[in-house]
Amino acid sequence: MFDYVIVGAGSAGCVLANRLSADPSVRVLLLEAGPRDRHPLIHMPAGIAKLVNVRRLNWDYATEPEPALDGRRLWWPRGRVLGGSSSINAMCYVRGVPGDYDDWASDGAAGWAWRDVLPAFLRSESNARGAGALHGADGPLSVADLRYVNPLSSAFVAAGQQLGHPRNGDFNGAQQEGFGLYQVTQKDGARCSTAVGYLRPVLTRPNLEVRTGVLVTRVLLEGRCAVGVEYAHGRQLHSVRAGREVLLSGGTINSPQLLMLSGIGPAADLRGHGIDVVHDAPGVGGNLQDHLDVCTLHASTQPITYDRASDLRIAFDYFLRGHRGPGTSNIAEAGAFVRSPLAADGRADIQMHFVPAQLDDHGRHRLPGDGYTVHACFLRPRSRGRIALASPDPASKPRIHANYLSDADGFDARMMVECARMSRELLMQPAFDRYRGAPVIPRRNDLDDAQLLAFVRAKAESVYHPVGSCRMGVDPDSVVDPQLRVHGIEGLRVVDAAVMPRLIGGNTNAPTIMIAERASDWIAGTGGARVGNRAATVDEC
What we know:
By secondary structure, the protein is α/β, with parallel strands linked by helices. It has a single domain, classed as FAD/NAD(P)-binding domain (3-Layer(bba) Sandwich). The chain has helices at 13-20, 40-43, 48-51, 98-106, 114-124, 151-162, 194-199, 251-261, 267-272, 311-320, 411-427, 449-459, 509-526, and strands spanning 2-7, 28-32, 61-62, 75-76, 125-127, 141-143, 178-181, 186-187, 190-191, 208-212, 215-222, 225-233, 236-248, 264-265, 279-280, 292-300, 334-338, 350-355, 371-378, 386-388, 399-401, 436-441, 461-462, 492-494, 529-531, 534-536. The strands form 8 sheets. Strands 1, 2, 10, 11, 12, 13 and 24 form a 7-stranded mixed sheet that branches. Strands 7, 16, 17, 18, 19, 22 and 23 form a 7-stranded antiparallel sheet that branches. Helix 5 packs across helix 13 (509-526). The chain is globular. The protein starts with a strand and ends in a 5-residue tail after the last strand. Mean pLDDT is 95; it is low at 527-540.
């Protein structure tokens, strides 16, 4: 018997395992479907360019055919390894802005305003620049400046200034807007995933057990109380009991899937798959949101990009010369937050990532020659999608209906056209004159708005920020309450990006870690499952 069973050792699950096992009187079990994070490409930051082909570390999801994107299936990579997506992402450390979290509170997530979440951000962070009003210096998550920056990334920042935008040395400081270099989740030039920062230092605790290579198939329920989980290891099914709580940290896709497999979800859908309905929860899987991203590529006249960089030389500099050179690059070194003419308020509504290489189809399609890429996404899309079961078989991938560009008034599509237009304008600035070759994607620089929209429909992809499929709130369609407890079920919480009511204005890894930091406080403070508003043991359920 364990006190807490955590499903998913990703960005949130590793945080929970660290914080909850700090109490030696409780026993914690952490379950992960993927392997341990031993692959060297995980830890060398530039290895991200090769990780796209390491399928055993990736759930390798794809959406259903997207009606507004020429019927294409978009690739949704998610980490399937200790550290989850924090072990395969681009390491950009971005928190969003205060208004993002104030919006959560106004949506019914009481206690999630900026003043509430900032302490958890500070507690998680160990910023190499030191502590301050907006940064922590003693947390498990190392945040650092890049050790190596490609000259093209500096040209990108200069181009933004030539367009009249400010230079910004800290996207998590007092002002988010501007062009600059990202700070990254690295320590001493190596990736600092949550597996590295939170889990590795506590693996020797006698009250913490980690099991990898196990697929959780359902939450075990007695009446309306979660009492454990069932999981598959190889061809064998096993069950494990949780004396206090079951904590789902599978992420925006896996957490709602597991709820539905356990009989918690839209009743008609569950019955259609032959699943007994324990709790009719229509919001499970709904409210799905993601940042849609469009890439603009130019050829480079100078061979300084990462397109043809020597893998052997990079590995030599990194592994044998003390984490030096391009191997320490996160590839997406520079970025920007800008306000478009369509901005609804004072917040930036477009984010850019700059890559000193030609990035087509997530880097899976190699293009000849040298070039560089501007990613641009609309930060606050209005379109909503849904995660749905494809089968009652836990090993089957769920259906992802992202429903990009499906909002009623077409605002998301207009914003994506603005993203493409601003990217093109940026790349025509004098800072790129010495590097600029021919346009690669799209092939012309003179496309009108209708042609740019057609380009978006043909080429836009996910930038890997899915959230919202187990939304927190107090209305009938919310899935968890503001303390992340599943409505209608005792002893069960969802703790990951699925609980976000809305996308934040930026990358979602740091906010996911913050969510787990806050949840660990409540869970440890409660000391057991809930019955009404008080703590209880499972036996009382």
